[in-house]
Amino acid sequence: MEGRIKDLDKIIFKCYSKIFLILIFLKMKNISNTLNTLNTLTKLLAVAIFSVSLNAFSVVLGPLITFSTNHVNATAGTTITPVAISNRGDDASYYLISPAISNGLSFNEKTGTISGMPIVASDSVTYTVTAVGRRGQDTATVVITVGVGTTNLALGKPATQSSTYLHAVFAVAGYAVDGNTDGKFSNRSTSSTEHEQGAWWQVDLGGKKNIKQIIIYNRTDCCVNRLSNYQVSISNKADFSTHIYQQDFHVAPNPKKIIQLDASGKQGRYVRIQLLDNDYLSLAEVQVMGVDPLHFTEMDYSSTQNDFNGVNNAPNYANKRAFAVLKADGSITTWGDPYYGSIHTPSGSGYTKIYSNGYAFAALKADGSIKAWGDSDWGGARAPSGSGYTKI
User: Fold this and answer.
1) 253 preceded by cis ω (within 30°)?
2) Angle at the Cα of 138 from the Cα atoms of 132 and 141, rounded to 5 degrees
3) Which residues of 258-280 are buried (b: 16+ CB within 10 A; e: fewer)?
4) How far apart, in whole angstroms, are the C-alpha atoms of residue 228 and residue 218?
5) Which of 42-46, 85-89, 155-159 comes out lowest in average pLDDT?
């Protein structure tokens, strides 16, 4: 704004200087009616200054933009609320963004809007959007952070129950993990045991998972109170001889019960629901929300863990003889034994995570593509092609 005022001051000063010179000229030539002439010139000048000042401000102003928010906390696998531009200045011909948008997000060059669904978790990235107008440009920034999302770990997984109710509809345990929550027995959407003491149902998640939440859907057609006195357990043993989590509940889900575990979650493979009395156990759906740990160990490339020749540089299975570090620009640097991954390092930038299985490395890019290197017999070769992968 200060620059615009100075430009306008220069214009006005030049105009008045010209009037002063004209006035001196008129005096020297003894032209009559000098005052009337001066008044006319002053009026014309006022109109000119008004016109020039508007034009000057318009030229300098250009677009004047702000974002609908300055920070977005997104979740991988969940669509973000579009981050829109508000423009209080001149129309923008187009918009630019830096750095280039990635990780499942998109940028509209006509509107300046950022939208989409992030693919993988990533650290905070500051995006600068520039609105380019016919008479100038303006910039605005937004920070986007992508956290790890939760998924239904139980969907389609093997489920068993203490018995199966024999009926025209064979109410198998798998009906409670088929994704159907309507709760109508006749629609083959609910599991059911026989009438028995301590009837139970359980699902095998296929491995130890980080469980954040358990959601139990009850029947909706009848018999809601059958599920009013029950116990929920998490274990790493199929027989539940030990448990990681166990709690009793005495109110029937209507239509569902959300069990929120602590922030860090519970690590377990099996989830069981068991009646505490004598009845049928019917379940419309059981959703186990959480995070599936990576098949490869995620590298911890901080110096605090790089001791004992690197044995502790990852939580479980560090690379035996090589290191890989991720730089701020998303490029990778490696060193150590060439047979274990210190050579054939992926070039370029844009990588977001590095993983190790002890003998080879795998890196995930922001676009969901994968690069692998290291011992070819242990996964260092033949990585899947294409993009859109969310975890390794």
Assistant:
1) no
2) 115
3) ebebeeebbebbbbbbbbeeebb
4) 10
5) 42-46
